[in-house]
Amino acid sequence: MLEPFGSPEIFAYIVLPILIFLARICDVTLGTIRVIFISKGIRYLAPIIGFFEVIIWLLAIGQVMNNLTNIASYLAYGAGFAAGTYIGMVIEEKISIGLVIVRIITPDDPAPLLSCLRSRDYGVTSVDGTGKVGPVKVIFTIVRRQDLSRVIAIIKQFNPKAFYSVEEVKSVAAGVIPGQYSHGVFSWLDSLRFSRK
Fold it and tell me: Taking the model in full, what pTM does it have?
């Protein structure tokens, strides 16, 4: 009777490690996304993702425990963890869920920058401040993460020497956020937030 995959050695040292590697990629990717969803207040999806994550993990660790003398399984397990972490971060970056606050500090006249941001329906607040070398304007705006690159491009266009910082925002109570109710591929996730007021 022919052994599946040719021989037990091929299965043990090639097929099984590949399966463990792929399983680890899946469960760690799901785990990374689950943690990101929890941190962003999307709590309906996190338990569902966690269910599939732990089932896949049990299958992977079960195969490793059944083959304790197989070094290839250990290597595949570790490599799958590393690859899954990276893939999870890439996926999270691509779907760009959530809101960020952009703080801009500039000693230059901010009027053109403010005018451009407001013309594109971004809510903007500006206050006077004092920096190391004199008076500055401090500008705040909250935008969707997927719009961040556009906002940074506007900042560089109008105030290329401005200092800016970006922080995650878990929830907002009110404000002007362009496209907040758009129907993009992942915008429906906003409706799953508990923490959003």
Answer: 0.63
The contacts of residue 86 (CB under 8 Å, 6+ apart) are none
Residues 104, 183, single domain; the answer is yes
Could you give the number of structural domains in the chain?
A: 2
Q: Give the structural domain span for 139.
A: 99-192
CA separation for the pair 5, 14 (Å, rounded): 10
Tens-level pLDDT at each residue, the chain (197 residues): 345 556 777 887 888 899 999 999 999 999 988 888 887 777 788 899 999 999 999 988 888 888 878 889 999 999 999 999 999 888 877 777 778 899 999 988 889 999 999 999 888 999 998 888 889 999 999 888 888 889 999 999 998 888 999 988 766 665 556 655 444 444 445 544 443 33
| Residue 3 within a domain | no
- 1 in a domain, yes or no? no
Same domain, 81 and 115: no
CA distance 133 to 129: 11
CB atoms within 10 A of CB 140: 13
